[in-house]
Amino acid sequence: MSALREGARQVMAWLHGWTGLLLGWVLFVMCLAGTLSVFKPEIGQWMRPETRATADPADAVQAATDWLATNTRGSTGWYLTAPSARTNTVEAAYDSDGSFVYRALDPVRGAPAPRETLGGEFFYRLHFELELPYPWGRLLASIAAMAMLVALITGIIAHRRIFKDYFTFRPAKGQRSWLDGHNALGVLATPFHLMITFTGLVTLASLNMPWAISATYGKDLAAVYHDLAPGVAERARANVPVPLAPIAPMLREAQRRLGGTIGRVYVINPGDRAAVVTIFRSDADQIGFTPAEISFDGATGRPLRAWRENRGAIQTYNVVYGLHMARFASIATRWLYFLGGAMLTLAIATGLVLWIVKRRERAPLSLGNRVLERLNAGVLPGVPLGCAAYLLANRLLPLGLTGRAELEVSTALWAAAAAVAMGAALPPRWSWPLLTGATALACALAALIGLSISVMSVVLLAVAAALALLAAKQLRPPKRAPERRRRAA
Amino acid sequence: MAGTARARAGWRYRVNVTARAVAGTIGAYAVAALFAAAMARLLPMPRVEAIMPATLLAFLVGPAVTLWAFLARGPWRAWAGVVLLAALFAAIGWAAGAPT
């Protein structure tokens, strides 16, 4: 690196700063939500404490389809995920009377869990859809991920001493400390940061880089889907009502043919003579995503077509995709993903703070930078506050409320919006400790209400303690460097 | 970009940065997209397989062009590089033709 021209290094640092600043807050939301999504099934379990029954996956999916057959009208498709070692419920996304819903279904009764909630699905969707309508959320997430890749590469090139930064932290020295912290967080897990950003871009490739497909398939997207997953049968709706054949025998047949365990189950055109049941092998025991699938005639239960993926190029893509989804990960690997994600989230937050600290120590802040300082004070503690408020709403909102799941989400969004408003209205030396303290309180309350002791409650209490300490630290007046300020002015 | 305060404020500096920023964003994406299209047509594999390496590598071509746009000696060179690469990949894709 030392052979690089000093000018070039400065250009890289400049580019790193601007890409980070322009999309930093979006990336902060994405990284925080993505980090929480590592434990999506576990968060779902914690948020549905009443639903404890377990069943064999085939029986659970049978119960789910029985319930859906009598409780949905005019569905075009039911998209189910079978229970696994990590979760006992059947995750169901389906349309009924024209509206699309997501519910966790009880594995024995097949009905939605009484504590109606999106669970970890909220963080998962927030991670790449940012609560924006399709396709805008995914497009913004794609642009942010591209900026992230540039920010990572320029950050690495701008760096003089990668190895030394593993061991450098000079606390309570203003800009120095923030830079040391930012560097350590970025450098310690650099390979993970590069991997997760690149693979994240790839997961949205059909939207953000469709040009290889259009150059070879033109507009014939049906042909692409067919070639990508030859085991998925497509049939037009016949509009002749025929009840769905029992699904448990199809699931057992699928398991016999595909090996492993059942992953996702799609029922297309349910209740129609042209119904198709497609069963995907679970990817929990290997990195590659969608390893094999088989389709059945939904009306008769006869197998239509099956496919086991063995094409090298497709498997390469599936592995890249699977590396991002981390469904293959054992508990230790999952915690490493969580840790890597948390470090990236904090690297982004410290980078955004550093932008202000660096300029504040040189000269009084310009109006634009004062606005950025207040946005930082609202967004950086406000997004975690929204996440904590979501968990707390799950404990406080009464069961059986109409639109309960949606209300939990609105609570999260309003809490975050209120935090941004507060960050704009109050001086940062007040909004930072107040919002950090409120997040600590919300985490602690969410852990304590309900009083079911679980790993998640312990983690929440630990986060609450850490944030409370941070809030107390933020209350103390910051050390300034008056002689430098005067010289600059 | 690492000029003096006076150079920073000048319109020359602003035009320089803007030109490079457009080359490094829209230009870089266009080069990556044309690369993906050309590779998908060029690679000797069934088309459904060729789209995979073409798309994966395009995500590396994009940031490389972004860095070029800011490291090149002068905005004209930055743009020349972007236009040349775009023309090259467009020509390859056009010559290879759509698979039948």
List keywords for this structure.
heterodimer, A: 489 residues, alpha+beta, seven-stranded antiparallel beta sheet, 18 helices, 7 strands, 60% helix, disordered C terminus, B: 100 residues, mainly alpha, 84% helix, Putative membrane protein (chain B), DUF3649 (chain B), transmembrane (chain B), transmembrane helix (chain B)
Strand and helix layout:
The complex is a heterodimer of chains A (489) and B (100).
Chain A: H1 6-37, H2 40-47, H3 57-71, E1 77-81, E2 90-96, E3 99-105, H4 121-129, H5 136-157, H6 175-188, H7 190-203, H8 205-208, H9 211-217, H10 221-228, H11 248-258, E4 262-268, E5 276-281, E6 292-297, E7 303-308, H12 312-325, H13 331-362, H14 367-396, H15 404-425, H16 428-448, H17 455-475, H18 482-488
Antiparallel strand pairs in A: 1-2, 1-4, 2-3, 4-5, 5-6, 6-7
Helix pairs in contact in A: 1-4, 1-5, 1-13, 1-14, 3-11, 5-7, 6-13, 7-12, 13-14, 14-15, 14-16, 15-16, 16-17
Chain B: H1 5-9, H2 11-42, H3 47-71, H4 75-96
Order of strands side by side in the largest beta sheet of chain A?
A: 3-2-1-4-5-6-7
Structural class label of chain A: alpha+beta
Low-confidence stretches of chain A: 482-489
Q: Largest sheet of chain B at a glance?
A: none
Continuous helix count of chain A: 18
Calculate the terminal CA-CA distance of chain A, rounded to whole Å.
Answer: 35 Å
Whole-angstrom Rg of chain A:
25 Å
- Mean pLDDT across all amino acids of chain B: 92
Which value, in Å, is the CA radius of gyration of chain B? 17 Å
Query: What characteristic shape of chain B results from the CA principal axes?
Result: elongated
Number of domains of chain B: 1
Q: Please report the distance between the alpha carbons of the first and last residues of chain B.
A: 49 Å
Helix and strand run of chain B: HHHH
